[in-house]
Amino acid sequence: MARYVSTVNSTRGVEETFDYLADFSSVREWDPSVVRAELLDPAPGLGARFAVTVRFAGRETELTYRTTEFERPRRVVLVAESSTVTSEDTITFEPAGAGSAVTYDANLRLRGPLKLADPVLGLLFKKLGDDAAAGLRRELGG
To answer: pTM score, two decimals?
Structure first.
């Protein structure tokens, strides 16, 4: 399993920051590994689905994320599962001065025969996480 946790400050308030990130199609704006992202349902919320195409280790993979927890404006959890990977992203929000602080906790688990590559995955995932956190800082003004 690979895990990446980062806290990013935002100049936006908690509710505005929550709304931006709970609409997970925004991931395309701040995560450079994401090629495409689109909301598949009428609006973000509990059960909402997002089609996300990521470029990882030279390959493009499409994942369908589903919102499994939606506690506006404090917490949102998104999960994607495929035959080769399970991704769970937990995003929490707290007031911080005039803005907010966002903690992004991403867990990636390989499934099936690919589980053997877990040690290497951790190293690659850190680089992807650092790049996404930098993009999130840029988008949120933190």
So the answer is: 0.90
